[in-house]
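hey m, so remember when u said the tokens were messed up on ur end? i reran from scratch. heres the input so u can diff it against urs
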Amino acid sequence: MEKQGSDSKTGGSNKGVIAIAGVVIIALVGVIIYLVMKPTEVAEEKTTTAVVDTADGRGIVLTPENVDEVLHAEPVPQGYFETAMTNEWTFIDGKSSKDDVYVKNETTNAHTFYFELFIDGENEPIYSSPYVPVGSEMPQFELSKQIEKGDYSATLVYHMVDSDNKEISDVSVAVKLHIK
């Protein structure tokens, strides 16, 4: 008889464990559903970017974050250049950039720039940007021509311009392109 009493206690204990495990599983499923269904903060935050025309037709990139900097930018001494950028870029469908493409004209720079992207060994750019004023960025863009799938070594040439948009210097940087 002792075995029956101890078995019934174990059976009751197992029911309690199963009930607790069931509650934990239901709570986890609820949390997972909540996380999957809730909109992400990144999706809600969209940056408005405008390209304002210039006399030479290249345009200037303006965002809400850089309007004051563009209008009131104080240049640093001549000869300095700083950029924030990624150096491996992916383009889907042979033209459209993914979110790993990023170029910024840092606020420490004295000059607006534009850039051109060349596949190494080619003379014609596959992209030529609008003017990017001090403090502005180019988070994504579309290539000006269709590129076949593959990985490419490329060169990004920054062209610094003066207040009249006349080129004063340039800097070349190596980048890796992944065309999907």
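this time it looks ok to me. The CA atoms of residues 7 and 13 lie 10 Å apart. if urs says something different then somethings off w ur setup not the seq
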